Amino acid sequence: MNYFDATFYNRYTALTMEQIREKLDPVRAPAGAAPGWEGLAGRELRLVQDNGLTLQYSFSRETLTLSENGGEAVEAPYSARELCGVVLVSHMIPGSVRGYELILDEPRRLTTVYEVWFGGFEPDKREVWREYSFGYIDTGEEPPAERHSLTNRIEGTGTHWNDDDGREMLYFFPSVIWSAYIELSDPRGGITITAPSDFFKISDSLYIYSRVEQEYSGTFTLEVIDLMTVRHIGVRLGFDVSDELDYRIYSGSGEWTGRSTNLEILTDYGTKIPFSEQHLKALAAGGRGARPSYRPRFLHRDYTQDEVDEIVRTNTRLFRGTSIMTSRNTMEVTEYMVGRKFTLRYDDGDAWEYEILDRDHLKWRIQGAGDWQEELYEGFEAAKNLVIFSHLCSGSKPVRCPTHCVDFSNALTTVVDARLGNGRKPWEICHEAKFGVLEIEGGPVPPVTRRHGFTRELLGKAYAWTYGDHMQSIHCYTSPESYSWTIILSGNTGGFMWSSPCLYVKLREDAYLMSWTEDACNGNQGIFVLNPRLMHDAGFFLGIGDTEGTPDFHLHAMGAFARPLAGFDLDRFFEEKQK
Question: How high is the pLDDT of residue 26?
Fold first, then answer.
């Protein structure tokens, strides 16, 4: 069994528990590019956690002995790092697939303890699970009353990091239960990944952050971050794409890149997980160590080509869907093009001839190639004299869906040419942007060389989108070829996240095109034109789905109102990568 990394398209093999045990034997300490911190050598510590766990430790320079809840002591290698008086200790337990990550806040005698283990789902056990608890260091004195706690104090933060193990990272925190990151040091880098995460407050400047690469390698990362000096210490535990153990401890320094505005009321301090009763029940049902999760490979069926062909043949739904992104906030369908005849000539050689019959129907043909075909379509005047419209090409196989963005004021046009099937999955959409000119009788003369073009002007921006009463999200445009979205939970708290490869095109100062494909997720394509003056978008959602319980192939309109949420200074990091 294997599955795809949703954005890098790595294949991770399923690892059985027996294979994992073999890879963990003999037990070892995390590797480090720098010597570990030795300040615990010769000491004994008793950690008392609020969940009933008691850990008795004795430390030497390189090994420790541990007794759990008064049980038999075991010896294990360990490593530690220190930051601003807070110590991070990491070790595995011999003969097992589990270990502990300790955050020792000695100035306050407080602890956060992570028990970590390889769990996952049958038959794949490579994902690292965790159970955290808060507590204190027992010195025989009165236990402290305070504790580390959940927090939203660093929600919205963006940072850039250089670690001593050679990794260069960008972090984004638009949620209180999820995070996004980009590994700039990966030679294939520049793609945004999202992961379920924990955020705990130690002090006004010190925070604990953890994530698990849930739909990817399954690797667990835990860090203590000092936002006053922008430094961190961390540990990474998992298996890489070659199935080699990736267990290391590191330090790093960074810088702020900016902040996306968080939307909760000012007196919401994020000390409780912002879940509905339904979410809480699902979390409890997940058992010990369960995280909030979004697992597309379990949610979406992996259709065969024959099944895709049958869905397209029997249940194609055009502009009448029930998508949560089709709502009262969708822009009004336009009659701007009704009665017009024109040609859209693209630089790849295609020339699309159109006759717009009415608000819902058009005729088209590729110039010099076949008869006219009539189709259903929808269009929106997203900016003055600029129309985005979309339709299927009936009879095409694989199914083809062009979405044109035509500027009738300057005779420029862009098409995002989408098809069903991307070479990896027959039910996922692939897309390509092409640039060209409008030829229309009585219209402006098409320019010889000027075109729309790919842009970085959206890079780093963040917006909140309101599709309707039941669907709100945050977009963070975090790399030149990818972005993340965050589903907003009750109380306007950032919740579940996912990311996609995408493309950005500048049409005009008041119109930007964005198109993305939800690869290894639901496989759909989203496309819209954003008008930053209206703070509104208009576009379409294309793909295979089962929104009404029966698989369909759909082309829906979508639209939302936007609010700008500040953002991040990112361009310089990608400029450096392309030199």
Answer: 96
